[in-house]
């Protein structure tokens, strides 16, 4: 898996506001982005189920006024991680990239 593909896929989906996350790679990138606007205690070294549980515990029933933030939270909460799919050479990197970049607005680039 080339990390840039997961990054670009999720960045574009946040522009459309009508899509879903399709894999754990996008999920880890999204988990990093979540930390740019909400306080969470998760990181990219966690296994998929543990990461999903932490995100659900923190964000379920929370409301966000920013449209893209709210959309990201919705698609993250809807996605069911594949528990056996964890790539320790890529997923922590995708998580950190999401944490550094935040939500990208392609319309402004």
Structure characteristics:
mainly alpha; Methane Monooxygenase Hydroxylase, Chain G, domain 1; globular
Report on this model:
This protein is mostly helical and 109 residues long. The chain has helices at 3-16, 24-34, 48-59, 67-78, 91-101. The chain has one domain (3-101): Up-down Bundle (Methane Monooxygenase Hydroxylase, Chain G, domain 1), CATH 1.20.58.
Question: Short description, anyone?
Answer:
With 109 residues, this protein is mostly helical.
Question: Helices and strands in order, then pairings?
Answer:
Elements (H helix, E strand, L loop, with lengths): L2 H14 L7 H11 L13 H12 L7 H12 L12 H11 L8
Name given to the CATH architecture? Up-down Bundle
Q: Quick one: biggest sheet? A: none
Average residue-wise pLDDT: 90
What is the number of helices? 5
Order of helices and strands: HHHHH
State the low-pLDDT regions, or none: none
Structural class: mainly alpha
